[in-house]
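Note to self: user wants both folds in one dump. Writing first protein now.
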Amino acid sequence: MKAYFATLSDALREADIFQPCLLLDLDRLDGNIALVKKRLDPSLAVRLVDKSLACLPLLSHIGKALGTHRLMTFHPPITEAVLRAFPDADLLYGKPMPVGAARAALSRGDAVWSRVCWLIDTQERLAEYGGLADELGAELRIAFEIDVGLHRGGFAEPAALSRALNALPTHKGLRCEGVMAYEAHAPHIPGLFGGPAKALAQASEQAAAFVARLGADQRHILNIGGSKTALLHHGGIANEVSMGSAFVLPVDFDTPGLDGFQPAAFIATPILKVVEPMLPGPPAVSRLLQALGRFPRKGCYLYGGKWMAEPVFPERMTRNGLLGLSSNQQFMGLPAQAVVRPGDYAFLRPTQSEAVLQHFGPIAVLSGGRIVDRWPVLPMM
C-alpha cells in the first residue's frame, strides 16, 4: 500500500496539484470494467448510472468499453448534458420526477428529450404525465417503477400495475416501455430471514410477476439491479441491469457481489501541519486522554476535510471526535511512529461516488503512474 500511494503522490507533485482533488486510477478502472465484462450474464445489457459517474469522459470511457448507450439519469441538468454529449444515448429516469420538472424540460421543444423515458410510480403520477402529454401535444415514453422488496415506492403488486396499464388507453400521449425494479435491500438481508441469495431470488420472481402483466410491445426496458447485485443476476426476466459506483468502488460497495474489484477513486489532499496535538484548556487533560488512548500523541491537519470518505493513507490515520471535523483544516490522528511531513499527501477513499466525484472540480486521471488528463465533472445543481 505504501508504494502505491507513494506513486500517486509523485504523480500529483509532477502535475503541480497541491490542493484537494479527486484522483481516478484509470488502470484500476479498466480492471473493474474487465471484471464486469467477464462476469455479466450474456443476456443482460448494462445501463450506466450517471449520478454515480457524473463526468462525461468517464461515462464515455466505460460506455465504449462495454458497448452500451443506455444510461440511468436522476437530475435534469445532468440529463440534458448527457443527452447533448451522447446523440445515441437512451435515458431512463431512476426516480420519478415532479411533473413540473418534466414540463420545464419538455416545454422548450428540444427534440433530445424524446430519448428520455420517464418513471411512473403511482396512478396519480400516470394521470399527471398523461395530462402533460396532452398539454404539449407530445408522445412521452414511460416505464413503471415496481416494488420487489425494497419498499421505497412504486407499484406494490402486479394487480396494481395491471390497473395502471388498463388506464393507459385514456392517456393517448404515453407509451409504456417497460419496468424498473431495484433490490438494493438484498445484500443486507440477514441469514435469519434467508440471506442475500434468497432475497435476490425473491426479487427476480416478483419482477417476473410484474412483467407478465405487460404486453409484448411493452417490454423494451426490463431493468433490475444496481452495482451491488447486477453481476449476481442470471437467467431472470430482466434484459438490463444498472451499474455505476461499482466501476470506481467506493467504501459502501465493498460487498461480496463485487469481489476482486479495486478502489479506483481517491480524494488526495496535502498535509499542512504535523503536530503533537493538544486540546484547548489545561495540558494535563490532553496528557490524561492520551494515556487513556482517547487522544493521539501525534497528528496532522489536512488541506480541507469533512468529506464523505474514509482515511486510507498514511496508514492508521484516523479522525478524532474530540476535535471533530472541519471543511477547512481537518485534524487527523496518526500513530506515534508515523513518518509524515508537511507537504506529503493524505488519501481518503470516498464512501460513495455520487456527489463526491463532483466536489473537487476536474478529476485528475492517473495512468501508468502519471496524471495524463483532467476530466471535467457534471453540475451538481
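First done. Writing the second protein, which came from a different request thread.
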Amino acid sequence: MATLMAWSRLLSRKRLGETFLETYEAEIPAQNRTSFQRDFDRIVFSSSFRRLKDKTQVFPLFNNDYVRNRLIHSLEASCVGRSLGTIVGEEIIKRHSKNLHDYIASDFGDIIAAACLSHDIGNPPFGHTGEDAIQEWFKSVRAQSVLQQLNLLQQADLTCFEGNAQGFRIITQKEKQADRIGLQLTYATLGTFMKYPRESSISGEVFPQYQGKSTAKHGFFQAEKNLVEQIATEVGLIRRDAKSAWWCRHPLVFLIEAADDICYHIVDLEDGFRMGYITYEEAESLLKTLLKEDNLEYLGSDLLDNIKYLRSKAIHQLILEAKHIFLDFESEILSGEFDAPLTSVIPSADSLKEIVDITRRKVYESCEVIEVKVAGYEVLGGLLEEFITAISQEDLSKSYLIKKLLPNFKADDENLDLYNKILKVTDYISGMTDSYAVSVYKKIKGISLPRGGK
C-alpha cells in the first residue's frame, strides 16, 4: 500500500521558528482567535500585501478603477478558498474524526484563505510579464559575466525567476516584525502556500516524462532551501527524489490552486466584458454553460448586473465540483499519486477551457494588455541592468551611487556573497508597485528628475 500523508501532521499549528505550540480550545472557538486566523491577519497587515493594490492583474491600472488588481484578486481568491476549504474540511473531519478531534471545518477554510491571500505576494510589477522580464534579463548576454560567478543551482534560481519562490522568501524571511522569522506563519499555512515544492535546478533527467502540475515551476530559491526542508519534515510531505529537493504537494495546495483558477478564469471574463473586449452574448453564453440546468430566472434588463449574477453562480458551481473531485481523490492526493489541477478534471473542465481560450485570445492579447507587457520588459530590464551592475562592480562611480538607492542594502551587506547581493536587488524590484517601478526607472535613466525638498 502506498504511503499516505497524515492530516494530523499536515495541519500543524506549530510556527516556523517557535519551539512551543499555541493552545486552542476547539470546543469554544468563539473565545479564541485560532492560529490559522492569526496567519491570515499577519498577512493582511504586511507591507508586501498592501503593495498588491498597485500591481497589475491583467489590465493596466491607470485608466480604469473597476478592473481587478493583484490585491482584489487575492482577496477574491481568499474568499473562494475559505468557502471551498470549509466544505471540504467538514467531510475530512468526519472521515478522520479519531485523529482530527481538535480541529473544526473552518480551520481548513482559514488555512486556505491565508494561503490564497498571500499566493501572489511575491509577484513583481506588471503581472506575469514581470517574471518573464526578470528571467529574460538574467538569460541575456548582459548578465553572463555576473552569472558565471555563481554556481549552477544559483544560476537556475535567477534564469528561472519565479514569483512563487519570491513569495515564499517574503513570508519566511523578508517581512520581519520584531524578532520573528518572516511572518512566522504556521507550518500548515506555509506548506499550503508551496504550490510547487521543488527547487529550480531539477533537470528533466530527474523526472523523465513526469506530467504532474507540481513540477511546472519551482517554489523556492536556494537561499530558503533549508526552511523548505524544515517545513516538509514538520508536516510530513512525501519526498519524490532522494537526491534533490522535490516533494509531493501538501493536499490543501490543490484547493488554493482551484480557488485561484476559478477566480481568475471567471473574473477575467467579467472584466473582459466590462472593458468591451467580450460581447454580452459571448459572456452570457459561456457562463451559462457552467450552470447546466440552474435556475436563471433572475436575469433582467441590466446587462452588467446579469453578468455579475452569472459570475457568482458560476463560481459557486465550480466550488462544488472542485470539492467533489478533491474528496473523490483524497487517498490519491495523500499518497502523491494525484498531481493535476482540480479544475482540469471537474465535470465543467471543457467549458472552463473554452472560457480560458476565448479570454486569452480576446483579452490577454489585446493591445492595451500587450502595451503593459512591453513596458514591463523595458522598465524591469532597465532597473536590473543598473542595480546588478552596481552591486557587482565596485570601481564605477555611478555604480556606487546606484547602490546607495537600494533601501534594503546595508553596510554589512557588502560582506555577502554575490548570489545574496543579487537577491537583495530582486527583493527590491519584485516588491515595487507598477507606478513606483516606472518612477524609479525614469529617475535613474534621467527621463525625469526628483523634485527638491523633503
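Dump finished. Worth passing along: The chain has a mean pLDDT of 88.
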